[in-house]
TrEMBL record:
It comes from Halorubellus litoreus. The lineage of its organism: Archaea, Methanobacteriati, Methanobacteriota, Stenosarchaea group, Halobacteria. This is DUF2237 domain-containing protein. Signal peptide: none annotated. Residues 1-29 are annotated as: Disordered. It comes from the Archaea. It holds the Pfam family DUF2237. InterPro entries: DUF2237.
Amino acid sequence: MNAPDETTAESNVNGEPLASCGTDPETGVQRDGVCHALPERDPGRHEVCAVMTERFLEFTDVMGNDLRTPRPELSFPGLEPGDRWCVCLPRWLEALDARAAPPVVLEATNESVLDEVSLETLEANAHGTE
């Protein structure tokens, strides 16, 4: 169950209440639009809210994760450039190294990612700064 106060209990990378990443398509491990940090339910760490780009979609497909093809059995609609999606922190970091990282929506990216990536790196890759 996802009580409304669960969303406000989590913070974004700026230390403010965690905003919704997106509802069209509905993202997040709980498909409630929020990039929750739920280590016991989400070992993939879908905590980075990113705006999909063609380059990232190509990169992740080559890495073995096709994000374009709908998978209704997994409540996955398939993505296209411009969609906002909670992506896995490890994949985002791989894409960063390959210069294919999608821009990050800071207000909707969970502060938990700061254990692996600096705020400065996230800010340098923030949506609206590319």
